[in-house]
Amino acid sequence: MKQQLLVAALSVASLTAYGQSQTLSGQVLDAAGRPVIGATVVEKGTNNGTATDNAGRFTLSSRAASPRLVISSIGYTTQEVAGSGSVSVKLADASTSLGAVQVVGSRSQNRSVTDSPSPVDIIDLREVTTKTGQLDVNQLLQFVAPSFNSNRQTGSDGADHVDPASLRGLGPDQTLVLVNGKRQHQSALVNLFGSRGRGNTGTDLNVIPAASIERIEILRDGAAAQYGSDAIAGVINIVLKSSVNELTTSVNYGAYDAKYRRDDQKFDGGNFNANVNYGVGLGEQGSFVNATVDFNQRQHTQRANVPVGPGGLARREYGDPKVSNLSAYVNSKFAVSDQTHVYVFGGANKRQGDAYAWTRFADDDRNVPSIYPNGFDPIITSDIVDVSAVAGVRTKLGEWDLDLSNNFGSNRFEYGLRNTLNASLGAASPTSFYAGGFQLQQDVVSLGLTRNYKTVLQGLNVAAGAEFRREWYSLFAGEEASYRNYDPTKSGGSQGFPGYQPGDAIKAQRDNVGAYVDAELSVTQQWLLAAALRYEHYTDFGSTLNYKVSTRYNLTEFLTLRGTYSTGFRAPSLAQINFNSTFTNFINGEPVEVLLARNNSAVTQKLGVPALKQETSNSANVGFTSRIGSSLSLTVDGYYIKVKDRVVLTSQFSAEDPVIGPDLVALNVDQAQFFANAADTRSIGLDVVLNHTATLGTGRLNSTLAANINNLKIDRVQTTGRLAGREDDFFGPREQAFVKASAPPSKINLTFDYQLGRFSTLLRFVRFDKVRLVDFDGADMNYDARVTTDLTFSYALTDHLQLSAGSTNLFNRYPTLFDPQRTETGGAWDPVQMGANGRFYFAKLQARF
């Protein structure tokens, strides 16, 4: 009995000891010994954390026997230290090393983020995803980065399933996307409808789950001379997680306040997300494997019950598509020796979607009443498979750092139709079809060399490299009934989206060879000079040579001036060169058969439209950065971007046109349009970012004011061949308005993030400026400025478990309402500004071990 009592007493004592907490304390300083205010101090593997005060000091309670602390702050290198006793940490300026992904915009491995001569935004995805309701990368950046814009679209065919995005108001294809510093392939989709990205291809950011991302670096500066095609507006570099021995998982759910519905349903658009991330360390030389699995499913929203104009109801089904998205991504590094390691990263994404097409009412001559007595609402389905894989080696070659890699990517998009018919088949028509699709693939072999000469003045970094890229594009036909007309007196093809025809099908490829050299010279400790030169040759249009020069000068300890000037280019995508289709468009609510003729088609050749060539650009950026201690920072950057020979989708030419009309009649289409280097544009803008950290009571308040002001003008429209002198017909006011509306003239973001112990709250205001579009009759459609409000509350239930809940667009703001007969979408608004779904409620549970 005594032995049993002794065992019980010892058990209670040990449990008590385990449950007892210890208080950890310390101070965080920068390299000069100054306190770092607002640095984040987190117990590794938990949600238990705090922030440093105005003296850089912190206290934290822990129940672990041997806690490890992870200390981080923007602009500094993250450190991990033992948590026993009183901790004193000096954070070095953030810089890169051989084993880390370099900061975008510089190939110097000694360059810090705040030391860059170009403006770079660093977005910590852990902080963003913890405290916001947005779940995919596009929407996260839309409300965090003012120079970034992306809206979901509806009634826009493929763009309903792949959100187009832009930087500084330029096209989706004028921003280069990198993953771990390597070029990410584009989507195979060409955007044809909607208010954003018309005629552009772009990169689908949403194939990469946010749970797999450590940070996103946005270089807001022309960088074609450094990275090649597409970097006219800037570069987005997605850095994948490399953490080890840490399991993170989250479950999220949210839904919209259903204001514009015909039924009594209070909520719709339910959005569910679940993900898990885990990293395994391999040995003691930094080897690791980090993997992420993510599942996201969102339901339809319904916004068709809005006031209609004299033309009557345009659509019975109008809202966001239903999308199911499954992703798996991995990031890994394997040490071969002290100076050599192999890296492998990439992943796969499978997406299926259902999107509403325009209503065919009961008395429509495209309806078969015996199949649909009340008319029908076609559903356009998507089946998208995206894969990427990168493998490479980094090593030392004498005094040089060498990086050799191969990068393969593929995006395949297939269309389907259901709840539809082919009217020319009458009552015998099927109600679902396979409509064909397209695929884009790329393979990139790259070699890079970097060397730092520490004894040349205050340091010289030299980089050189070469790249070979091959791209493939294919467009494949749908089943016969999806495109064929079996009765010339009736409409043929699947309603909602006619399938691609055998005559549309094509297979194309091209090769590209590039070589670059760049250098960064620290003339003094205060003054940096940098230059880059890049040559590229494409097999389908020729060669281009581009350069970039930049400088940065530390005027005082607290003020740095910087500036860049560069030339750039963007090669027309294989999809823009080779895409060909006949589709149904709606003009003032009436269906019109439109031929989109490929660049080298019989129609374009008859009109004298030349082969597509590269866009060229000249851009300049002048600004300053100011950092007063670690509590206040300010960056201001003004920019100028001129783009010549911009590839656009022209206006639609009618069969009644005196020049092109007879050709269209012979092709049995009502209208035609095509891609051409038709416009010169000029953008002038300003980016401002102000960050402040302060202690408020016993908590920490982070305040951020970020703004982008952008003015895009079309300087010139150029026509050629038989259409010479017809600028307003070739690329008219309506199409010009769509280009200008790629971003509102200004977007301002004001965020307050307060943390007190286990509790935190985030309050964010985003002001979207007015947007001007033009309707089918040439009348202005002015969307007024709007302010949205987001509010999130978070509480750490335990050291490992955190619950967050809140609302985005708290006050249920919508864009200006219009007659659906006037809009591009057939709904009450075009896809502008902050989206058109209203208030969103969400809750998320996150675990970290």
From TrEMBL:
<dbReference type="Pfam" id="PF00593">
    <property type="entry name" value="TonB_dep_Rec_b-barrel"/>
</dbReference>
<keyword id="KW-0675">Receptor</keyword>
<feature type="signal peptide">
    <location>
        <begin position="1"/>
        <end position="19"/>
    </location>
</feature>
<protein>
    <submittedName>
        <fullName>TonB-dependent receptor</fullName>
    </submittedName>
</protein>
<comment type="similarity">
    <text>Belongs to the TonB-dependent receptor family.</text>
</comment>
<dbReference type="InterPro" id="IPR000531">
    <property type="entry name" value="Beta-barrel_TonB"/>
</dbReference>
<dbReference type="InterPro" id="IPR037066">
    <property type="entry name" value="Plug_dom_sf"/>
</dbReference>
<dbReference type="Pfam" id="PF07715">
    <property type="entry name" value="Plug"/>
</dbReference>
<keyword id="KW-0813">Transport</keyword>
<dbReference type="InterPro" id="IPR036942">
    <property type="entry name" value="Beta-barrel_TonB_sf"/>
</dbReference>
<keyword id="KW-0812">Transmembrane</keyword>
<keyword id="KW-0472">Membrane</keyword>
<keyword id="KW-0732">Signal</keyword>
<feature type="domain" description="TonB-dependent receptor-like beta-barrel">
    <location>
        <begin position="351"/>
        <end position="810"/>
    </location>
</feature>
<dbReference type="Pfam" id="PF13715">
    <property type="entry name" value="CarbopepD_reg_2"/>
</dbReference>
<dbReference type="InterPro" id="IPR039426">
    <property type="entry name" value="TonB-dep_rcpt-like"/>
</dbReference>
<keyword id="KW-1134">Transmembrane beta strand</keyword>
<dbReference type="InterPro" id="IPR008969">
    <property type="entry name" value="CarboxyPept-like_regulatory"/>
</dbReference>
<feature type="domain" description="TonB-dependent receptor plug">
    <location>
        <begin position="113"/>
        <end position="235"/>
    </location>
</feature>
<keyword id="KW-0798">TonB box</keyword>
<dbReference type="InterPro" id="IPR012910">
    <property type="entry name" value="Plug_dom"/>
</dbReference>
<keyword id="KW-0998">Cell outer membrane</keyword>
